[in-house]
Design the sequence.
């Protein structure tokens, strides 16, 4: 092999996490190369977005206008046939006390188009994008990652060197081990998903027609995402022990799940499943709820699904991917500019990222724990009270990681109590939502009053505000003794150096 080609930063993976980090680093004038093993546009699941990605991160990336013009379905929130109420109820972004306003919506996106827009945007911002180029292994020198070996489009092995490698290669990437940790799988979210696409189907009544619908049934739940008038994404989330049944008959398992879930069955009616082209197959994903014990090591950072993912239920994946891309870019930019030490900059990255992951993990666990009409194995197994102490302990340790700010969470008993009360709050809020049927505003106020919901919205709101309205003056550190974003949102600074 020839001498390695040199860059400031190598980003592996051209999904939302990689494109976000690469763009925000290249914007600072650094030489960034992004390796993507596929040729875009390529298929990916994860179609329902949250407002912080659309109005916060995409605006920082300068891609918001192009995304607006792409004609994606507008998503005002989520509709849920979930909990004890037989009728669907809504979680509308507009009714969050902080999110209300002209940007209180997100999109349902076909990921081929969305990811392609972000990757081409990265190239326009100066990132050297190399498709059909698969990273093979990290190169380490004296305990520090200093580059990697990849296979170019003709299959030739080549070496790259850089001050920093950002691993955004998703759940199937191979580099995460180079951060020195291990991947820990959640015992609580032991779900798998089987999903396909239908040529249309009914819509919820306006103004909720663009909402994602999540509908619980005895053996799990279904998502129903209106991507276009003639395209609906439908997936069943089932217990992992359904794997053999799915292996034997994917299509049959998806169809039976739809038949078992009245609201989705009625919406689909006799709409045909698409059987040709990119949307023509029934796909399966499993083992997707995990987090790595380390999110960075000298010379390498893990972001997006390369670091962690929880569960599809509240559309958190692309948010965590783009959020972590933004956090990592601030850290890389601060270190390359010689403003902060690696420990300080990446300590902030990891602390904030773990905190966001933990807040969502608790929220999603509370969501699964909510009282359902059914008492079947799927829902009983997802009661927080039935969680094994070891899983609680393992999760607490995982969340605490290198972040001392989360150390208070360590301890299975504390965590069980905390998750239990979050889920009781959420159930109570949703039940009151059903009772207060007069105005949607009253209903939603109940939901947003639940502390676990407020926690989930808080950091997302900050990101969205920053994208929508520019730098937030006088932002307080999120972590004890932590840093704050610089005025342009692209670096970290010590709180006393930030403009008041
Ligand atoms: P990815 O989008 O996976 O991108 C990683 C990229 O890296 C890929 O393009 C891949 O080709 C490339 N790559 C991999 N290995 C290499 C290599 N060795 N070299 C070079 N390139 C490489 N999220 C939501 O927000 N909303 C949803 O509704 C939603 N639904 C979901 C449903 C299911 C069943 C699952 C499992 C997940 C869902 N998600 C959802 C999560 C979402 O899919 C992910 O969180 C999101 O795609 C993560 O983005 P990423 O950029 O980290 O990774």
Sequence:
């Amino acid at each position: 092999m020839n001498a390695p080609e040199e860059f400031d930063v190598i980003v592996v993976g051209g999904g939302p996490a990689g494109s976000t980090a690469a763009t925000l680093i290249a914007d600072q004038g650094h030489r960034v190369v992004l390796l993507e093993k596929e040729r875009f546009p390529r298929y990916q699941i994860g179609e329902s977005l949250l407002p912080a990605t659309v109005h916060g991160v995409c605006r920082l990336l300068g891609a918001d206008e192009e995304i607006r013009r792409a004609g994606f379905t507008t998503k005002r929130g989520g509709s849920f046939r979930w909990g004890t109420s037989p009728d669907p109820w809504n979680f509308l972004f507009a009714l969050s006390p902080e999110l209300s306003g002209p940007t209180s919506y997100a999109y349902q996106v076909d990921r081929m188009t969305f990811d392609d827009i972000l990757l081409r945007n990265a190239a326009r911002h100066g990132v050297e994008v190399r498709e059909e180029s698969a990273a093979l292994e990290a190169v380490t020198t004296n305990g520090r990652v200093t580059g990697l070996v990849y296979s170019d489009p003709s299959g030739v092995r080549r070496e790259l060197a850089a001050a920093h490698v950002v691993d955004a290669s998703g759940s199937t990437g191979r580099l995460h081990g180079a951060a020195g940790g291990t991947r820990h799988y959640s015992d609580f979210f032991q779900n798998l998903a089987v999903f396909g696409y239908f040529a249309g189907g009914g819509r919820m009544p306006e103004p909720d027609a663009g909402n994602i619908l999540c509908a619980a049934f005895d053996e799990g739940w279904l998502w129903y995402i209106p991507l276009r008038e003639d395209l609906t994404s439908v997936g069943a989330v089932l217990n992992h022990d359904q794997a053999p049944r799915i292996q034997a008959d994917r299509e049959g398992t998806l169809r039976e799940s739809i038949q078992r879930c009245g609201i989705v069955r009625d919406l689909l009616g006799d709409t045909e499943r698409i059987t040709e082209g990119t949307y023509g197959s029934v796909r399966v994903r499993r083992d997707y709820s995990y987090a790595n014990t380390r999110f960075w090591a000298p010379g390498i950072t893990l972001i997006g699904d390369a670091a962690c993912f929880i569960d599809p239920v509240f559309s958190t994946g692309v948010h965590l991917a783009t959020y972590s891309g933004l956090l990592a870019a601030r850290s890389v930019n601060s270190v390359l500019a010689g403003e902060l030490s690696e420990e300080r900059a990446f300590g902030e990255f990891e602390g904030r990222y773990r905190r966001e992951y933990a807040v969502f993990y608790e929220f999603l666990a509370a969501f699964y724990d909510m009282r359902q009409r059914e008492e079947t194995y799927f829902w009983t197994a997802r009661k927080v009270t039935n969680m094994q102490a070891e899983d609680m302990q393992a999760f607490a340790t995982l969340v605490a990681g290198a972040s001392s700010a989360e150390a208070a969470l360590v301890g299975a008993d504390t965590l069980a109590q905390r998750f239990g009360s979050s889920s009781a709050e959420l159930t109570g809020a949703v039940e009151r939502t059903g009772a207060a049927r007069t105005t949607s505003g009253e209903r939603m106020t109940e939901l947003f009053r639940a502390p676990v919901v407020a926690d989930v919205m808080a950091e997302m709101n900050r990101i969205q505000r920053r994208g929508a309205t520019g730098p937030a003056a006088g932002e307080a550190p999120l972590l004890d003794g932590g840093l704050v974003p610089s005025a342009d949102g692209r670096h970290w600074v010590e709180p006393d150096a930030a403009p008041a």
Summary: The radius of gyration is 22 Å. The chain has a mean pLDDT of 90. The first strand starts at residue 5 and ends at 12. Residues 275 and 401 are 44 Å apart (CA to CA).
